[in-house]
Specification:
- The complex is a heterodimer of chains A (254) and B (187).
- Helices cover 80% and strands 0% of the residues of chain A.
- By secondary structure, chain A is an all-alpha fold.
- Chain A has a single domain, classed as MetI-like fold.
- The longest helix of chain A has 39 residues.
- Chain B contains six helices and eight strands.
- In chain B, helix 3 packs across helix 4.
- Chain B is globular, with a radius of gyration of 16 Å.
- The chains are: A mainly alpha (254), B alpha/beta (187).
- Chains A and B meet through helix 7 and helix 8 of A and strand 5 and helix 4 of B.
Chain lengths: 254, 187
């Protein structure tokens, strides 16, 4: 149908379709504990939005998780760059990466509960989730730098610093953006999961856990909606900060 | 003076040169011609020290710096023309002069990705000219450049060749005439 050519209309149609399914299912089940209606969830979210505790909880969760994410971005990128340059570092570091990649996040959370203060566990888990993505993507980006441009820089005796700034960084940038996009969603979700398991004070995870314990399913939905909205906003914010789309018009003919 | 002694080079089964010996002068333009695939570009790369996978010896004056117009432009597509020149040469005046010679003064702030093929070619030549070096290597430099601009750029290259070596690879005898080559080597 022609009408579905507009992306906004497509999204709206799909959203409305599932909203109707949700409303119908909630009405049929008729028990808020099992499945609250969208209206009940929005009402609860609205109530939460009017409390100071909501903002404090969101701010603390954001801080913990953002710190873990940023540490992963910096250290993962640095480790990836060093691995690409040093065979020895790559050799010694590859088992660490294999362990991080293949261990279930729940195992890390349980181990972290034994080793670490529960306040820093969510950040640590985010770090572990995001680190391998930055590590691999930076390596792929460095490898994607054009050999021909690197040879040109070598012939013209261009300094290492200039070569990094003008050849490596532009090559790495799209890979870095892809890593941010992939890692942010995952880190945020894993961070909240870690909060659910270790319930640090002032955390979305703790609120989710308590809502479940007291069978306040509308609260579980409201907090989940908050997690989703923050995840989308964070991705948009970071991608806007990192992107500068300098594509211009092409000129043809001499 | 650059001397190539007993240079042999092959790509897999294919032998490009066998015991090639050649002497190039300190100054003046020398043309290198031959059919496609005969190894002209490879020889340029060996002379400039970019290809080290060969047997024989290349004798050059110690510390000789080569400037090169590659067959492909090899420009930094995402930064303005002037920044492409400043990438290889710190002297802004020299860069602006090279842009003037190649008729790219008005395009100083244009990104190579916004340029036509001919403009990119001229920018690659401008980069090689502002870098200077002790010898200039040109691999099919004039492809896609119109006659009037060719003449203007050739004049700057002839100027360069008064004091230094210019090594030109071309298929076009007109280029050899334009640069007033003192010698032509057929591979």
């Amino acid at each position: 149908m022609k009408i579905f050519r507009y992306p906004a209309l497509r999204a709206l149609t799909a959203g409305l379709f599932w909203l109707v399914i949700w409303i119908t299912a909630a009405a049929l089940i008729g028990k808020e504990v099992l499945l609250p209606s969208p209206g009940a969830v929005l009402r609860r979210l609205w109530e939460l939005l009017q409390t100071a505790a909501f903002y404090r909880t969101v701010a603390f969760s954001l801080c913990r998780i953002t710190l873990g994410f940023l540490a992963a971005a910096v250290l993962g990128s640095a480790a990836g760059a060093v691995s690409e340059r040093s065979g020895l570092f790559d050799l010694l570091f590859s088992p660490v990466m294999a362990v991080i990649r293949s261990t279930p996040v729940a195992s890390f959370i349980i181990l972290a509960l034994v080793w670490l203060n529960r306040q820093i566990i969510p950040g640590f888990i985010c770090f572990l989730m995001a680190f391998p993505m930055f590590y691999s993507n930076i390596r792929a980006g460095i490898r994607s730098a054009s050999d021909k441009l690197l040879e040109m820089a070598l012939l013209f005796r261009v300094s290492k610093a200039k070569t990094v700034r003008r050849i490596y960084i532009p090559a790495v940038k799209p890979y870095l953006l892809a890593a941010v996009r992939a890692a942010l969603g995952m880190a945020w979700k894993a961070g909240v999961a870690a909060e659910v398991l270790c319930t640090p004070a002032d955390s979305i995870g703790k609120m989710l856990y308590q809502s479940k314990v007291y069978l306040e399913t509308a609260d579980v939905f409201a907090w989940t909606l908050t997690v989703i909205l923050i995840s989308v906003l964070l991705e948009k914010l970071i991608l806007r900060l990192l992107s500068d789309d300098g594509k211009g018009k092409e000129v043809r003919g001499e | 003076m650059i001397r190539l002694v007993d240079i042999s080079k092959s790509f897999g089964e294919k032998l490009l040169f066998s015991r090639l010996t050649l002497t190039l002068p300190d100054k003046g333009a020398v043309a290198l011609t031959g059919p496609s695939g005969c190894g002209k570009t490879t020889l340029l790369r060996i002379i400039a020290g970019l290809d080290k996978d060969y047997t024989g010896t290349v004798e050059t004056e110690k510390g000789l710096l080569f400037s090169f117009v590659f067959q492909e432009d090899r420009l930094l597509e995402g930064i303005p023309a002037i920044e492409n020149l400043l990438f290889v040469c710190q002297d802004r005046a020299k860069c602006l002069d090279a842009l003037r010679v190649t008729d790219l003064e008005k395009e100083a702030k244009t990104l190579p990705r916004q340029m036509s093929g001919g403009m990119k070619r001229r920018l690659a030549i401008a980069r090689a000219l502002c870098y200077g070096g002790g010898a200039l290597i040109l691999d099919e430099p004039f492809s896609g450049i119109d006659a009037a601009r060719r003449e203007r750029i050739a004049q700057a290259i002839r100027e360069y060749a008064r004091e230094r070596l210019v090594l030109l690879v071309t298929h076009d005898s007109e280029d050899i005439r334009l640069l007033q080559c003192i010698d032509t080597i057929s591979l």
